[in-house]
Design goal:
This protein is α+β, with helices and mostly antiparallel strands. It contains twelve helices and 13 strands. This is BioF2-like acetyltransferase domain-containing protein.
Amino acid sequence: MAAHPSPPFASDSLPLTAPRARWATLAAEAAEPNAFYAPDLLAAAIDHLAGSGDVRVIEAQADGELIGLLPVTVQARHGRLPIGCVANWMHDHCFFGAPLIRRGQEMAAWRGLLAQLDAAEWAPHFLHLRALDAAGANAAALEALCVEQGRGRREVHRHDRAMLRSDLSADAYWETHVRAKKRKEIRRLQKRLAELGTVEQRLLDDGADLPRWCGDFLALEASGWKGREGSALASRPDDIAFFRAACAAAFAAGRLHFLRIDLDGRAIAMLVNFRHGDGAFSFKIAFDEEMGRFSPGVLIEIANLHAVQDDPAIGWMDSCAAADHPMIDSLWAERRSIVQYRIALQGKGATRLRRAAAFALAGGVERIASRMKGQE
């Protein structure tokens, strides 16, 4: 079994077609779905968001077969600590960080990925893994390998976020998990909105419409508070290019799930999701804030609930929302525990000692901070 590095990608480079083909094969057989590291979104991110070129893609192989893929970057700080580390790459529009690992090869893939980082002179101190599923295949295999190798592993953060995973029909789920008072209010809003004109809910199914839908979404998102704060996708050319490229590639791969609600032909709410395996990840939502009295954001989430629960190919959807999100938490009953880990890197000689000291120092500072806060 061998692990093979990829060089840093410059912002104007296009990774070769061959690596992306290997990534696609791996993504189709991944033990744990992650649309953000599937080749359509990952390639778009590398092409448009890799910035100064400090992103590397580590590939683990066994008998010439790709069994693991993890994009990483070097960070000068670890939280508030001025200690450098290597971390899984989480750009501003990436909300899940589990590497792609071939099903049945979880331990072997992690062994290869960590061995490469152990040997990498450019990898400082330790590995910071962000946004993993605490109950996922990656976390289980990583824990087992760390025990096997006597490698330090510490959970540094955990939170729960809304997830949709149920065998109920959309109507049954709605009746079971949403309060009667809220259901009544939503019906009233839907009726009032219909009084203004023709309301239409649509799921994108024609690639010829994709450029216009992307443009509508960008304009709709930029028209609200994100546009005013400069955090909308349309605020930065690189983000626009990434969004359009990611949507186009995902549609071509059959992984784009794009919904909208129109009033008299004009979008008042839109929602972009990306599928992978038997699941999906909710990516971005946009709605007309001037229509706020009709709660268009809630209405598009209800349309999404029906689209997901009525599609037998989608077994679950991760909201990718912040913890304790008031809107989506009131609609989706299930939760996903998202964790961060600090993983000790090994090596030889002085490098091994330096890494061990940094790992111990980070843990010691955290323990002191916890005691000062009365958490231990």
